[in-house]
Structure to design on (180 residues):
């Protein structure tokens, strides 16, 4: 794999190889092998981090590889409904308007469900595109179809970006829930 085609699997393999090489160096007293193993582990950790790097923008995700995807509209609309619902709930509480407060709470909950639906769609769709792209790229590579291979590599990269974007938001929400 090239340096701009980071892979979680490759990082796991490199980390395991580095661990073994470092352990052998440690057992044999060969500090050179031990240092090379530790360096390989550090490189694997950096590759793992790059494989998971994403930049979230409102309504879109950009990966470290440069692939960009749009979020499912339910994610954006759900987030908006949560914000508006929370505002209604707060204003209702401040004014003592139980109807507005309840309406805001309901809109917030519906927004959470809507956003989760969009995240699930993006995660599943991303995983499917990623798998189809990987298989298509391998088949195209075997048949010598360079344009097909490029097409499927792009599909895999976009699927990975879509999947990582959903993972990013899900993880962020989990952290926010733990803080409450």
């Amino acid at each position: 794999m090239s340096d701009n085609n980071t892979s979680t699997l490759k990082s796991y393999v490199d980390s395991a190889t580095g661990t073994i090489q470092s352990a052998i160096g440690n057992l044999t007293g060969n500090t050179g092998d031990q240092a090379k193993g530790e360096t390989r582990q550090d490189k694997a950790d950096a590759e793992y981090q790059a494989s998971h790097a994403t930049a979230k923008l409102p309504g879109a995700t950009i990966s470290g590889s440069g692939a960009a995807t749009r979020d499912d509209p339910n994610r954006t609309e759900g987030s908006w409904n949560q914000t508006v619902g929370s505002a209604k709930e707060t204003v209702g509480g401040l004014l003592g308007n139980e109807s507005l407060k309840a309406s805001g709470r309901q809109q917030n909950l519906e927004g959470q469900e809507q956003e989760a639906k969009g995240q699930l769609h993006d995660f599943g769709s991303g995983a499917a595109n990623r798998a189809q792209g990987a298989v298509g790229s391998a088949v195209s590579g075997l048949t010598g179809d360079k344009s097909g291979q490029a097409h499927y590599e792009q599909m895999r990269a976009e699927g990975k970006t879509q999947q990582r974007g959903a993972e990013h938001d899900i993880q962020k929400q989990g952290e926010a829930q733990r803080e409450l």
